[in-house]
Amino acid sequence: MVMVALGTLLLWSTAGHHVSEAQPLTHIAVKPLELHSSSRAFPALKVLHAQAPSATASVIPAPIRRDEPQMARHTIEQGDTLFELATRYNTKVEHILQHNPEVNPDNLKIGDTLKVPLNTVQHTKTREELGDIAAKVTMSSGGEPLGYKRKIACKLTAYTSSYESTGKHPGDRGYGITASGSAAKEGLTVAVDPELIPLHSLVYISGIGPRYAEDTGGAVKGPHIDVFFNDDQMAREFGVKQANVYIIEEGPRESD
């Protein structure tokens, strides 16, 4: 009878505990996992950890967007133009304007700071790289370069750095400089319509040889190539010709 009474008393005492007086809930949750030694218990544990929010999640920085270009800050100096800045930073004028909508491209103010995106145009081959390719060009028995990409029947004219051709005098900013940013050079430079032949392309002109598409011109549209000469008299004597033009190496096309 004494044992029965003690057992009854014990049961009554346990049932009367409040939650705050029971064992901590963390112990109750952990003990079943500690009792299992089989590997099946660990995948469940991993799932719990994956679902639980990290204590430091709120301070992890957002990932860098790879589609956003790196930016430079340029303080406008005397003589700066958007075209020259675009060439210097390997970007486009329109890309600079997108990041500086308040700027008037025809009235840059000295001392103002521009946000300039970097390297937003594709890689272009240098003269040295194009020269290496040109040196390896071989001709067929029919007089055509082997391995060309496109063939275009073009009108050929000639130009120089003179005011008659470019509207600039010696000493003017940009005098003798091509649209690609390099100095025009006889035996290398031709002006093209970049919609047809992208800048930085290597072309082979029948009767002339390899040339680099480095310049553009207001009158150079469609299948028309302007060949650069140093001497005005030679340019005039060149006149107007027709020739097949072969695209050996095509430069990157302009894209937004």
Automatic annotation (TrEMBL):
GO cellular component: outer membrane
Keyword Signal: yes
GO biological process, one term: peptidoglycan turnover
Annotated keywords: Signal
PROSITE patterns cross-referenced by the UniProt entry: LYSM
Molecular function in Gene Ontology: hydrolase activity, hydrolyzing O-glycosyl compounds
Domain of life of the source: Bacteria
InterPro entries: 3D_dom (IPR010611), 3D_YorM (IPR059180), LysM (IPR018392), LysM_dom_sf (IPR036779), Resuscitation_pf_RpfB (IPR051933), RlpA-like_sf (IPR036908)
LysM domain span: 72-116
Protein name (database record): LysM domain-containing protein
Protein's organism: Tumebacillus flagellatus
